[in-house]
Each structure stands twice: as structure tokens, then as C-alpha cells.
Amino acid sequence: ADGPMPQTREHILLARQVGVPSIVVFLNKVDQVDDAELLELVELEVRELLTKNEFPGDDIPIVKGSALAALEDSDKKIGEDAIRELMAQVDAYIPTPVRPLDKPFLMPIEDVFSISGRGTVVTGRVERGVVKVG
After folding, report:
1. Residues 87, 92, 97, CA angle at the centre, nearest 5°?
2. Residue 16 pLDDT
3. Domain tally for the chain?
4. CATH no. for residue 26?
5. What is the pLDDT of residue 95?
6. What is the DSSP letter of 128?
7. Residue 117 is part of which domain span?
């Protein structure tokens, strides 16, 4: 109920600077606040912060819940149900990236791991093309 934390402000600013087109917000730790009006005030502050950073603050989905309640399975409404609602909002609001499938495969490597019994494994994000067996 302290409003947007400094790290939240930094994340929103960084998202704008690197060109993140869409955001969905999860207001966490609602289990620590008993005052519904206070939660509404925090939501309003987050919306204002988003608008200030050139995101459509009035339109962005904001889901309220508790990650801890979801993890501990202690309160279904603010736990599991809130996480499911968050994912539904992400699916509905965040557009699927358009990737050229007709071009050669390109996946910049982000990390490399040596896994015993498996060998070397690389991770990355596919930017274009498709992966298929053979």
C-alpha cells in the first residue's frame, strides 16, 4: 500500500526506453492491505505513472492478487484465481509477436549450459524462421 515502488518506476521507464509496446500490471501483496480504497489509490497511482511514461494508463489491465497466496495455496481468490486472471489478461492484451517464418532461422544465443548426460545446451529467442526435426 506504499504505491509504486522505485523499482516499478524504473521498470516502466526502461520498458518505454527499449520500446516495449504493451504492459499488463499485477498489483502484488494485496493480502497485506485491508483497505479497498487504499488499493484503488495505488491502482490510480500506477495508471498515472504509466500515462506519464506514454503508456495508455487508463486502458492497461491491472490484476490484483498475491503471489505468496498462490504459491502457498492459502487464498484461492487472490492467489491462483488472480494468477489465472493475469495470464488471461496477458493473452488478451499482449499481441502475439509477428515473426517472419519464410526467412532463414535466426536465434541469437543468450546463454550456454553444460548439462551432464545431455551435453551443451544453448538458450535464446527465435527471431525468424522455424525449427523442425530433420
Report:
1. 95
2. 95
3. 2
4. 3.40.50.300
5. 93
6. B
7. 99-134
Q: Please say whether the beta carbons of 77 and 30 come within 8 A.
A: no
- In angstroms, rounded to a whole number, what is the distance separating the alpha carbons of residues 36 and 44? 12
Q: Per the domain annotation, does 65 fall within a domain?
A: yes
Q: What is d(CA 29, CA 71) in angstroms, rounded to the nearest whole number?
A: 12
* Residues 82/84/86/87 CA torsion (nearest 10 deg): 170
Give the closest residue to 78 by CA, choosing from 63, 86, 66, 90.
66
pLDDT at position 1, please? 57
What per-residue confidence (pLDDT) applies to 5? 85
What are the angstrom distances between the C-alpha of 47 and each of 51, 52, 57, 75?
Answer: 6, 9, 4, 26
The mean pLDDT values, 10 residues at a time, for the chain of 134 residues are 83 95 96 93 96 96 97 96 98 91 94 94 92 85
